[in-house]
Design a protein that fits this description.
Blueprint (H helix, E strand, L loop, with lengths): L8 H4 L1 H21 L7 H22 L4 H26 L17 H9 L12 E2 L2 E2 H24 L1
Antiparallel strand pairs: 1-2
Length: 162
């Protein structure tokens, strides 16, 4: 017996697509960090978390395709959150709003602890733009990339509903 309403090919491979898209994003981030020597700020690191979550969701979907009904919306939500973090980072880079991500000295430290903290390398400020392509930062590219992937996931979830 054949299936009268077969799923489109893109939907069948959606767990592979989202996992590979997330792996590609993390590969670019780690390449920039390790090979190109770009130091990530705390917001850069936060932007990596949704991609790691989507890799796990994609792997689950590869081995359990019946779970796509809840995996795709969850992956879409994860990409949406990642896009929001990236948009916040863009705002910090552009000085649209302030952020306290530059690391400050803790209060109430003893003299020894204060000296130890002063000797450590301070964390990278989130408003320092180290790299841009055509005047566009990695965080800005991440906003668009994550939004496009969220739309893909939500479209797949919508298709599965029908």
């Amino acid at each position: 017996m054949t299936d009268r309403n077969p799923q489109p090919l893109w939907l069948q491979f959606s767990p592979h697509i989202i996992a590979q898209a997330a792996i590609a994003a993390l590969a670019v981030a780690y390449y920039a960090q390790i090979v190109n020597g770009l130091e990530p700020c705390i917001l850069c690191l936060y932007q990596r978390v949704p991609f790691a979550l989507v890799i796990v969701l994609g792997l689950i979907g590869m081995f359990r395709p019946a779970h796509l009904r809840w995996l795709l919306p969850l992956a879409g939500l994860s990409f949406l959150v990642g896009s929001g973090i990236a948009l916040y980072h863009v705002g910090v880079e552009q000085h649209w709003w302030e952020s306290a991500c530059a690391g400050e000295l803790a209060s109430g430290l003893s003299a020894g602890n204060l000296m130890a903290q002063l000797q450590q390398k301070p964390p990278k400020s989130c408003d320092e733009l180290e790299w841009a392509l055509f005047g566009i930062s990695m965080a800005t590219y991440n906003v668009a990339y994550s939004l496009a992937l969220a739309v893909f996931c939500f479209a797949g979830a919508w298709k599965l509903r029908g």
